[in-house]
Amino acid sequence: MKHTSPLLVASLVAVSVMGLGCNPFASVQEKINKKIGVTVAEKILEAGAGGKIDVDVESGGVVFKDPKTGEAISLGTNVKIPSGFPTDIPIYSGAIPSTAVLTQDGKRAALVVTVFDAESSQLTEWYNSQLIANGYERKSETDITKTFFNKYVKGNVKMSVIIAGQKDKSGRQVATIQINREETAK
To answer: What span, in angstroms and rounded, lies between the C-alpha atoms of 90 and 36?
Structure first.
């Protein structure tokens, strides 16, 4: 009676399973590829920025954070807003953040969100009421074909809110809101 080597049997089983599209190592390879991609992105960004930068793609977006300066940029879909982000920037209920930027000194911040099923004019009224309730004064208001540009001031803080809405292919109302906040020296 011939004995078959256990190593040969294991190799044949592994090859047959991989050949059927059921690669048990695919998730490991995917994690390795993701880690390599993150490492390469960090090195490229560090070379350009001149310091250490952490890249986090686990959330479905990308977070660039310089641990030395505290500057942070989050990009993607439903990104995490960086810690220390100004709390006076209102965020509409159900808004999906796609960009969040915070400078090292916390004096400049920007936020881009997407809101579904709300008209631009309705969103403009909401942001206006929130900022005025928070002590801001509206300094300018511009409406160019249902794209709204509003500027607000509170002491040494300036905030601009840009709201642009349109219907997507299915007819659903979609608005993009960009909020920029800058704090100047007193």
So the answer is: 37
